[in-house]
Amino acid sequence: MGSTHNSYHNHIRAIGNMDVRILRKTDLDTRLIIEGVDTPYINALRRIILSEVPSMAIDEVIIIENSSVLHDEILAHRLGLIPLKTDLDTYNLPEECPCGSEFGCNLCQVSLTIEAEAKENTTTVHSRTLNSENPDIVPVSDKIPIAKLALGQRIKLEAYARLGKGEEHAKWQPVSACTYRYMAKIEMDKKKCDACGDCVDVCPKGILVKDREEVEAKNIIECTLCQDCVDTCPIDPAAIKIEGDENTFIIEIESTGALPVERTILEATSIIDRKSQEFIKQLKAAK
Ligand SMILES: [Zn+2]
């Protein structure tokens, strides 16, 4: 009982002292240090980002003409995987849209068309060929190849993009990567260490440096906890100790371009918040 009690209080204190530091931040790529949280919290954030933050993707395609070598299904699949710029403030998830229609409306669906023909030479149809009815909902890159057409081949189609979630299909994930790892805690026993430098040579990230007969750790953020330095230390037990800090994480998020990373994180936290509020509501109602 005693240990449960203690860990509960440690947890509360940790959440109270949350601290976020930005290591790198652009719309496409962000790296943060989050201090004072635990693994379940950071993992919930990661999983919500991957599977529940909505983004826009093509979901239905009406092929009017396709004389390319690609089957209609392959063409539709390729279109679905093109990341589209997403506007979460204007569009509704189809299941939440007031229209309630399977056909969708202009608040839950965007139409994009392609009309392409190889008139003179072999031509590649790129994402820039997609003609959107809303100039804000367009492919994040205009250079994504969709199909190659030989002379005389044609593609004519209408595609419908909708908001969706990664839990249904990966094409709706707003991020291409979302990972976290523990921040390293490196301890040097300076009494035991004879500064032989073996650990300095073996560290694949070059974190350890020999400075005047002493080994020091610099740029600890890069440490991947590989333990090579510990294994190579000729002293037994090793004069260096490396472990993960269970309350400090380095989280890296790379956007597909559908949403800025900051918006993705804000959406994820408000989803966690909504779920918690719903839990409290249900708990009170269950009394
Ligand atoms: Zn609608």
How does this structure look, described?
With 287 residues, this protein is α+β, with helices and mostly antiparallel strands. It folds into two domains: 9-52 and 176-253, 2-Layer Sandwich (Gyrase A, domain 2); 55-170, RNA Polymerase Alpha Subunit, Chain A, domain 2 (Beta Complex), CATH 2.170.120.12. Helix content is 25%, strand content 32%. The chain is built from six helices and twelve strands. It has a four-stranded antiparallel sheet with strand order 1-2-12-9. Strands 3-8-4-6 form a four-stranded antiparallel sheet, with helices on one face. A hairpin with a 4-residue loop joins strand 10 (208-210) and strand 11. Helix 2 (39-51) packs across helix 6 (261-285). Bound molecules: zinc ion. Zinc ion (ZN) binds at residues 97, 99, 104-105, 107-108.
Shape category:
flat
Query: What is the distance, rounded to the nearest whole angstrom, between the alpha carbons of the first and last residues?
Result: 26 Å
Question: How many β-strand stretches?
Answer: 12
Strand content: 25-35%
State the oligomer.
single chain
CATH H-level name of the largest domain... which superfamily? Answer: RNA polymerase, RBP11-like subunit
User: Architecture of the largest domain, CATH level 2?
Assistant: 2-Layer Sandwich
What Rg is obtained from the alpha carbons, in whole angstroms? 26 Å
| Alpha-beta classification | alpha+beta
> With helices defined by DSSP (H or I, 4 residues minimum), what is the helix count?
6
Q: Give the strand line-up of the largest sheet.
A: 1-2-12-9
Question: What is the makeup of the main sheet?
Answer: 4 strands, antiparallel
Bound small molecules, deduplicated: zinc ion
Q: Low-confidence parts lasting 5 or more residues at pLDDT below 50?
A: 1-14
